Amino acid sequence: MNADDADEIEVRDPISAPDADGVPRRTTRRFPKFTRDTARPEGAGRAGPGDALASRQWPIIAVLGVVALGLLLTALDVFRVGTILIGVGLLAGAVLRWMLPGVGMLAVRSRFTDIVTYGVLGTVIVLLALMAQPHPWLQLPFLKDTLHLTVSSS
């Protein structure tokens, strides 16, 4: 094999090695060191005509609509109901991510990570909204004891 033959072999993947015919083939399941393209996101397929609103994007539109309504209510000084609505919107996102096979842009990470993230954030926001002062709708007695242990009057 001379220098001219070496120039003719095109290695498409830095991990692959040429077979007997000189065609590179993958010898490992590892990803290549250098990528020339990016993976398409889960919701990247065409859902309709170019000028139509993508039909696979309705879950993210629904979640964003509920969260936007909650933010509007919070801005209009209906704090508790608005923040509960924000948390419910995130919980709805977790349920949609769990139930539907294709959710478009609502899918950010793996299904498990999305469900846990939306679920935990939604639950925490709802619980904090229910415990907000003055006149909390949810009172947890151990929180008052915890406060007395951390703050002293002397």
Description:
This protein is an all-alpha fold and 154 residues long. Helices cover 49% and strands 3% of the residues. The chain has five helices and two strands. The chain has a two-stranded antiparallel ribbon with strand order 1-2. The radius of gyration is 27 Å and the shape is elongated.
Largest sheet: 2 strands, antiparallel
Widest sheet, order of strands = 1-2
**Overall pLDDT, averaged?**
77
Number of helices: 5
**Structural class by helix and strand composition:** mainly alpha
**Considering DSSP H and I runs of 4 or more, what fraction of the residues is helical?**
40-55%
N-C termini distance = 88 Å
Q: Low-confidence parts lasting 5 or more residues at pLDDT below 50?
A: none
Gyration radius, rounded? 27 Å
